[in-house]
Amino acid sequence: MTRARDLGIRIGTGTQGPADAISDVDGVMVGHTTIVRGEGPLRVGEGPVRTGVTVVVPCEDVGRRMLFAGCHRLNGNGELTGLEWVRESGVLTSPVAITNTHSVGVVRDALVSAQVRSQPPGEVSWSLPVVGETWDGVLNDVNGMHVRPEHVWRALESASAGPVPEGNVGGGTGMICHQFKGGIGTASRVVDAAASRSTIGVLVQANYGRRERLTVAGVPVGREIPVEEVPAPDDVRSRHAGAGSIIVVVATDAPLLPHQCERLAQRAGLGIARVGGIGANTSGDLFLAFATGNAELPLPSDHDTASPAVNVRMLPDGAVTPLFEAVVDATEEAIVNALLAAETMTGRDGITAYALPHERLLECMQAYGRH
Questions:
Q1: In 3-state terms, what secondary structure has residue 288?
Q2: Which of 11, 44, 90, 230 is packed most tightly, with the most Cβ within 10 A?
């Protein structure tokens, strides 16, 4: 798996975390289930199948810990369930899952089922899980809805810290980015703010963008590697060419309050813009940010009205700017990592999404003095 830092591509000026991944935030784990089977013509319900599910587990005891969160919408032609309660309460109470557009319902229900199974017998559960999507119908039998509850449970069971598989994995299996093969990408930054050190991690499911807008560290790569050189998987003459979406999950161990998490989520859009995203009309660009800096505190029960006031920690707003910069840089790098890790894939009806060629990318970077 090749990544930006493996090729000497430097994005921003910040310091990367050890794994350069969202899992650099202590306690955060990522799991994937990848579903690839079948070749040839599309037969709805049979395949070919190029899809999956990715889960981000914020901490082992999610739903019982104080995980402040916020969200942002750049363009809303997409879905990220559970956001109304995140906005209302300022708290994340579930793992975050990402899949294809027509599998959101089954993934959401599977997360609820997993929570029910983890409860003591007879206890009544309540859950509004956060599940996002992007559309993989160019390569995948998206209307066949091949993601099943067991795929979600397998992703949860496999979730771990450390390096995160990227590219054609999990929810990113059938995704396309800037008309190259896209998918899952991640990156992280370590920053000093308010006399303390914090880690920012970003994970994206990248499935958006026209070729000519692709920019890497300021270099117009998409114009240098046009569709005449590396073909696009869709009709470049169509007004929907390059249409698609991106989901961004931001994690930090900084002690942030909900309004600060929302401000972090907003900055993901700037990282997308630097790579060439514009939040097109047909795009679902939805972002979630959560903070584990108060996760040592139990989430108070709504029914325990006699509980005393809870003391929480926060960074002063004046100290948050370095975290904003980290989100922008890590989002940009996560998208580039998704492109670099992805491999050429042929899906339904023989449609092929070609990988971004690494050698040509390096030639472009060198030509512009960026390598």
A1: strand
A2: 11
Query: DSSP per residue over 187-209, as a string?
Result: EEEEEEETTEEEEEEEEEEEE--
In the residue annotation, 301 being an active-site residue is answered as no
Nearest to 202 by CA among 337, 75, 307: 337
Pairing of β 245-252 and β 29-37: unpaired
Q: Are strands 245-252 and 284-291 parallel, antiparallel or unpaired?
A: parallel
| Residue type at 305 in one-letter notation | T
As beta bridge partners, residue 73 has: 286
Burial of 50 (0-12, 13-18, 19+ CB in 10 A): buried
In the residue annotation, 245 being an active-site residue is answered as yes
Kindly give the pairing relationship between strand 176-177 and strand 180-181. Answer: antiparallel
Catalytic annotation, pick one of 94, 188, 245, 329: 245
Q: How far is residue 27's CA from residue 58's CA, in Å, rounded to a whole number?
A: 6
Instruction: Say which residue the tokens 């006699």 belong to.
Output: 306
Q: Which of 23, 94, 188, 283 is catalytic?
A: 283
pLDDT by residue for the chain (371 residues), tens only, comes to 899 999 999 999 999 999 999 999 999 999 999 999 999 999 999 999 999 999 999 998 898 899 999 999 999 999 999 999 999 999 999 999 999 999 999 999 999 999 998 877 777 678 999 999 999 999 999 999 999 999 999 999 999 999 999 999 999 999 999 999 999 999 999 999 877 899 999 999 999 999 999 999 999 999 999 999 999 998 655 556 677 899 999 999 999 999 999 999 999 999 999 999 999 999 999 999 999 999 998 988 766 666 778 899 999 999 999 999 999 999 999 999 999 999 999 999 999 999 999 999 999 999 999 87
For the chain, the structural domain boundaries read 4-29+59-92+164-296+314-367
